[in-house]
Amino acid sequence: MSVTEAEALAAFAALSQETRLAIVRLLVRAGPEGMPAGAVGEALGGASSSRLSFHLAHLEQAGLVRSRREGRSIIYSAVYPTLSGLVAFLMRDCCDGHPEVCAPAVAALACACDSSSKSKPEPEATNA
Amino acid sequence: MSVTEAEALAAFAALSQETRLAIVRLLVRAGPEGMPAGAVGEALGGASSSRLSFHLAHLEQAGLVRSRREGRSIIYSAVYPTLSGLVAFLMRDCCDGHPEVCAPAVAALACACDSSSKSKPEPEATNA
DNA sequence: ATATTATCTCAATAAGTAATGAGATATTGA
DNA sequence: TCAATATCTCATTACTTATTGAGATAATAT
What whole-number distance in Å separates Cα of residue A81 and Cα of residue A38? Predict the structure, then answer.
């Protein structure tokens, strides 16, 4: 759950690239089960295999995604705890001296996660 | 409050550099009033003025900080709505298909912002 | 074993980003 | 106006990162 500065830097760097940000968004939406590299490439509109592999490896090294082999495919999935930790890292700093600025961020989250944060207080599955 | 993909990419790129991340954290803690460029440089342990100016300009272009002239100093301050929007951007994607993964993120925020999110449901001051 | 599918690895090239140092601009006080 | 303070701008150099294409590795089916 806690993210070091080095980890945050790596994660931000990974997220600051168009292809990688698209991959992360795609995998986050794909859910914990993830999807094979080939499907990611197709969804991105045909990225070359080497390029795709490069970005997936970068994301994996940054801890934003993970992979597992399944048959002849390699399935990639988002690592939700890293995303949560990144948010916590930013907000922790944010709150440190001026808690009042956190309200809007929490409000934004509460809005986006309306059904989960208000109706489903169930224990998390993939959090760190 | 809404952040486009291009804005998110710019913000992530800005946050992925050690000096700039340190600046943002410093300014976020400095509060809405901000602090002069020179003080930022000193707090960072003596960065050259050109280097500091370069990074501050980068952050300002990414919408993470803003500046105003005050006497002979230029005061920089964090733009909280961009940070909130960035969080909302990530979480919006996160929630889109799998709301259950948001719970940990919200919990992390609620924990970090305990006093503000639970005791002070006052209207936000700097949100977009 | 061989062919096929799926993905990774490597080397080369191209492009973008950061640090440095010199100098320019703006504000204030003598 | 002149000097001092505070910060920005520009050019150079060094470093890092992304793309491409060829080829290697792993798993499966015939």
Answer: 25
For residue range A27-69, what is the model confidence (pLDDT) as tens digits?
Answer: 988 888 999 999 999 999 889 999 999 999 999 999 999 999 9
Q: What is the rounded distance in angstroms from the CA atom of residue A86 to the CA atom of residue A92?
A: 10
Q: Strand C: which bases are under 7 Å from protein Cβ?
A: 5-11, 17-23, 26-28
pLDDT tens-digit profile of B17-64?
A: 999 999 998 998 888 899 999 999 999 987 999 999 999 999 999 999
Contact (CB<8Å) A87/B100: no
Report helix, strand or coil for B5: helix
Residue A90 confidence class, pLDDT cut points 50, 70, 90: confident
Residue A100 and residue A41 in one domain:
no
For residue B119, count other CB atoms closer than 10 A to its CB. Answer: 9
Residue B28 near residue B114 (C-beta atoms within 8 A): no
* Chain B residue nearest residue A93, CA to CA: B25
Q: Report if residue A111 sits inside a domain.
A: yes
> Is A87 contained in some domain?
yes
- Give the range of the structural domain holding residue A73, as residue numbers without chain letter: 5-79
A72 with A93, same domain: the answer is no
Q: Judge whether A43 is closer than 8 Å to chain B, CB to CB.
A: no
Which of B87, B106, B81 lies closest to A115 in space, CA to CA? B106
- pLDDT of A116 > 50? The answer is no
Distance from the B40 Cα atom to the nearest Cα atom in chain A, whole angstroms: 16
User: A87 and A30, same structural domain?
Assistant: no
Angle at A27 between CA A12 and CA A42, to 5 degrees: 110
Spatial distance between the Cα atoms of B21 and B12, rounded to a whole number of angstroms: 10
